[in-house]
Amino acid sequence: MLFPQNRYIYDYDKRYKPTVNFMPKGETMPAKTLSLILTFLLLTGCAVKRIPFNESDFTGLQIKGDKTVSGQLFLVDQLEEKQVAGKAEVTLQPVTPYSNQWYEVTYLGNHSIEKADSRYNEYVRRTLTNPEGSFTINDVGPGDYYLSGVVHWKAATCSGNVVQTKIPVCLKVNVAENDTTVNVPLTKEFVSPTEICDLYNQGSWQK
């Protein structure tokens, strides 16, 4: 006999893969030292300080162009349930030392970072998905970009409460000179802890 399955999702993506390619002016820091610093900041609740905004890093970047980046923001878990991110912000930012730091600290490190320099907004593109999670960003120039968004994964507990968890998604995207449209499934591998509810005993266990 099959029982209905209610599912409870936790924020699972706490991984940090320390690399050091965002240090300014060619300076490097041992990965272990960087990891210890970020751990300390996590415990103290401090935001990571931004590296200086260097306009020379953006010299030669062709931010505006005739290309289109489109796709859908969604997640599919290990039980093949798909949830799309409707009315969600999608951000396209060029790959530079400035955005590399954001990627390392915020996306991989799951830690807050200081607000970006106001001059950086000139180089960042933003749009909203439609109710089906689809998005389109027009007038993009060729180059390498970080394409990112957040899926609000919804699940129910055995008691019937609905829980919503923010799952960030980010991909590195290349827009080539000969591209017209680059279609990107903005997603990642996602494994959700699941509770199977026992309707007779009113209990649950992890699957």
CATH class of the domain at 24-51 and 64-153 and 167-190: Mainly Beta
Shape: globular
CATH fold annotation of the domain at 24-51 and 64-153 and 167-190: Immunoglobulin-like
Helical content (DSSP H or I, runs of 4+): 10-25%
**CATH architecture label name of the domain at 24-51 and 64-153 and 167-190:** Sandwich
Task: Describe the protein in words.
With 207 residues, the chain is mostly beta strands. The protein has a domain at 24-51 and 64-153 and 167-190: Carboxypeptidase-like, regulatory domain (Immunoglobulin-like), CATH 2.60.40. 13% of the residues lie in helices and 36% in strands. It contains two helices and ten strands, in the order αβββαβββββββ. It has helices spanning 31-44, 97-108, and strands at residues 64-76, 82-84, 89-94, 125-128, 134-140, 143-156, 162-175, 181-186, 195-198, 203-206. The strands form three sheets. Strands 1, 2, 5 and 8 form a four-stranded mixed beta sheet that branches. A hairpin with a 4-residue loop joins strand 9 and strand 10 (203-206). The protein is globular and about 55 Å long.
Note the topology.
Elements: H1 31-44, E1 64-76, E2 82-84, E3 89-94, H2 97-108, E4 125-128, E5 134-140, E6 143-156, E7 162-175, E8 181-186, E9 195-198, E10 203-206
Parallel strand pairs: 1-8
Antiparallel strand pairs: 1-2, 1-5, 3-4, 3-6, 6-7, 9-10
